[in-house]
Design goal:
Immunoglobulin-like, 17% helix, 150 residues, four-stranded antiparallel beta sheet, alpha/beta, four-stranded mixed beta sheet, 1 helix
């Protein structure tokens, strides 16, 4: 029985060598290119800072101080200063009131130490400025009454 095993041993070795040789031939070699590849940078998510209140709205209504009637097409300018908030999410823009005297600045990022100043202009009325220098939540509703030009 010992002799039968020894007789097949060289055949078995030959089969194993042939299989490994066939695998080596069928596996393509990796292609090396000379062009540099760009490694994508990972997304960086910053933790919220103390005092961050998140995104919200600055909204309000502009009315006549004497009659209480809404003032349509008044120009409302928002100036937003912050030591912390991202520049792109600040309320530094201008809008006009609708027929009901309502204005809206959407997606404004609030931090509790931000300062927001609203300036309201309307033909025939005195310019009004109001400032909010501290926030406890991420919305500011500022109703503004305008006086007629004397």
């Amino acid at each position: 029985m010992k002799r039968t095993y020894l007789r097949f041993f060289p055949v078995l070795i030959l089969i194993l060598v042939a299989c490994n040789f066939a695998n080596a031939i069928s596996t393509p070699a990796p292609v090396v290119t000379s062009t540099p590849t760009t490694v994508p940078s990972p997304e960086v998510t910053l933790a919220p800072l103390p005092g961050d209140l998140g995104s919200g709205d600055v909204t309000g209504k502009v009315t006549d101080a004497v009659t209480g009637m809404p003032i349509a097409n008044a120009t409302v300018t928002c100036e937003h200063s912050s030591y912390i908030s991202k520049e792109a999410d600040r309320c530094n823009r201008t809008t006009t009131t609708d027929q009901d005297g309502v204005f809206l600045f959407e997606k404004v990022f609030f931090h509790d130490t931000d300062t927001i100043k609203l300036t309201v202009d309307a033909p025939g009325y005195q310019t009004e400025k109001i400032t909010q220098a501290f926030f406890t939540w991420n919305n500011w509703e500022a109703d503004i009454s305008l006086n007629h030009v004397p």
